[in-house]
Backbone:
């Protein structure tokens, strides 16, 4: 692939790299604490307990989609747990080993657990994708109405950080995704796909993406506290 733009070409609206680097360090620190291991019938998961928004990473470890082994999206789990701790929210990530794919199997026990943890709070479902020219893809799922008030915060903060952000392309969060299944249950849920460059400490995308998520997550958590 020969993209027409590279990240360094983009002028962030809020180019405060020093503060962003500090936010990344804080998240990295928070990502390292031990979480509570739980075991379900299709595999294990780690939970960081809190209140409010749920940050989920269903693909942190190797999983099986219709029996075919799929690559782990390593780094999404620690990020979900860190964002939960950063905002006092709830984090959940799959742990080895998984029999199936929570982002594909209807009513996978992971979905049940997220649904139960989320109650009336929104879920932010984190994934990793290959670079295609956008750094962040926000999937609104089959019921976009249930992402109201969520996606604009992520778009604003991503643009402020100097990231290329898209809605529903290349991934829209179909009916079998964690987002789609939660929405089918009437839950507020949104899918965020980040390129693997966003997890590479040597790449400019990491400071921009982790800090944008820290800021968006904090904004959402505060909005919820002030409207409660
Ligand atoms: Zn994924």
Residues:
């Amino acid at each position: 692939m020969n993209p027409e733009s590279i990240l360094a070409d983009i002028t962030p609206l809020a180019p405060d790299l020093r503060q962003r680097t500090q936010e990344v360090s804080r998240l990295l620190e928070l990502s390292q604490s031990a979480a509570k291991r739980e075991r379900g019938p299709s595999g294990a998961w780690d939970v960081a307990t809190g209140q409010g928004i749920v940050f989920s990473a269903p693909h942190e470890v190797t999983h099986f989609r219709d029996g075919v082994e799929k690559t782990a999206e390593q780094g999404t789990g620690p990020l979900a747990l860190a964002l939960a701790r950063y905002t006092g929210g709830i984090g959940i990530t799959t742990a080895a080993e998984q029999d199936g794919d929570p982002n594909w199997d209807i009513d996978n026990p992971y979905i049940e657990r997220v649904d139960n943890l989320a109650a009336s709070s929104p879920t932010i479902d984190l994934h990793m994708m290959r670079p295609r020219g956008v750094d962040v893809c926000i999937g609104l799922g089959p019921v976009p109405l249930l992402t109201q008030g969520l996606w604009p915060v992520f778009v604003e903060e991503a643009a402020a950080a100097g990231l290329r952000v898209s809605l529903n392309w290349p991934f829209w969060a179909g009916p079998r995704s964690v987002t789609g299944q939660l929405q089918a249950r009437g839950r507020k849920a949104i899918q965020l796909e980040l390129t693997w460059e966003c997890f590479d400490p040597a790449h400019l995308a990491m400071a921009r993406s982790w800090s944008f998520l820290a800021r968006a997550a904090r904004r959402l958590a505060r909005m919820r506290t002030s409207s409660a």
